[in-house]
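Email to the structure team, subject: DUF4260 domain-containing protein model.

Hi all, the expression group asked for a predicted structure before they design truncation constructs. Nothing fancy, just the tokens so they can compare against earlier work. One-line instruction: predict DUF4260 domain-containing protein, return tokens.
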Amino acid sequence: MKNLLKLEELGQFMLSIILFNQLEYAWWVFIVCILMPDLSMIGYFTNTKIGAILYNLFHHKLIAITILSLGLWLQYSPLTLVGIILFGHAAMDRVFGFGLKFEDSFKNTHLGQIG
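Reply from the structure team: attached below.
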């Protein structure tokens, strides 16, 4: 089952690449931006609760889809780009086993323990 879920996430990551390709940005923009949502881990310098809240906010696919949809509806490509990057990053993280975080530990995720 775990491999099936990872394949599903890989498909979603590939979808983010396809969606990005529909925008008029150079490919280096995708490469530079795809790791930016991990800056949300800065909240862990405060404590695990704040860290988990910030991390989950930037890695929640419904938020990404909402931003992406709003960008498409408004025909505003920077907002569309943000939604695609958030969606693609969350999918990429889950391919590697990094899920949404619980407040007790960075390693405790909705996909199980990291490591």
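The chain has one domain: 2-113. Strands lie at 101-102, 105-109, 112-113. Ping us if the truncation boundaries need rechecking.
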